[in-house]
Design goal:
Shape: globular
Distance between the termini: 51 Å
Number of domains: 1
Order of helices and strands: HHEHEEEEHH
Strand content: 15-25%
Number of helices: 5
Largest sheet: 5 strands, antiparallel
Radius of gyration: 18 Å
Number of strands: 5
Helix content: 25-40%
Length: about 180
């Protein structure tokens, strides 16, 4: 009897886990808008970047599911998009990193922020600090990246997330994934 009740519950949890790798519609729209604005294109395609288990094992933080994409317009690579989540004080927020075709950060964007405080990390002025950074950069919160009063955890978390991505970017480039 217990197994009959437990099985549907486990199946439900597994389906949520698998669906978490698909970009939700509300985030897709925001990502599309940012790509259009950043690269000045109307029509483009996102192609998931496949990362082998061997390369993924080398990464600072594994990239699983639909998180890293090539951006193509008119059959030409124009850049890359990385979508992920980072922790805030009691929840997490969704963010986007756009790279140009030379693997330089073109834009960062907080897509969804779920806290009552600390939303200042979504300001264009603060996020501009990441623009132009490459895999050679190592960012330090409160030194290279300005602190934000009232958003210490989220601002530090975003800095760590970008740093981790830049470290992964170097590994992906060395392994000819990008």
């Amino acid at each position: 009897m217990r197994k009959q009740i437990l099985f549907p519950f486990v199946l439900l949890i597994a389906s949520f886990s698998l669906s978490s790798f698909v970009i939700p519609k509300n985030i897709q729209k925001k990502v599309a808008k940012e790509i259009s604005k950043t690269f000045d294109v109307e029509d483009f395609d996102l192609q998931k970047v496949e990362i082998s288990d061997e390369v993924n094992d080398q990464l600072v933080r594994k990239i699983k599911g639909e998180k890293l994409f090539k951006i193509n317009a008119n059959d030409k690579l124009i850049g890359y998009a990385f979508i992920d989540k980072a922790p805030s004080k009691t929840d997490e927020f969704d963010y986007l990193i756009l790279l140009d075709s030379n693997l330089i950060i073109a834009k960062t964007k907080v897509l969804i922020y779920r806290e009552d405080y600390g939303g200042e990390i979504g300001s264009k002025r603060w996020l501009k600090q990441f623009k132009g950074k490459t895999s050679k950069d190592k960012l330090k919160y409160q030194k290279d990246i300005m602190a934000i009063s009232g958003a210490t955890i989220s601002a530090s978390s975003m800095t760590i997330a970008v740093n981790t991505f830049l470290q992964n970017l170097a590994i992906l480039h060395q392994n000819k994934v990008l």
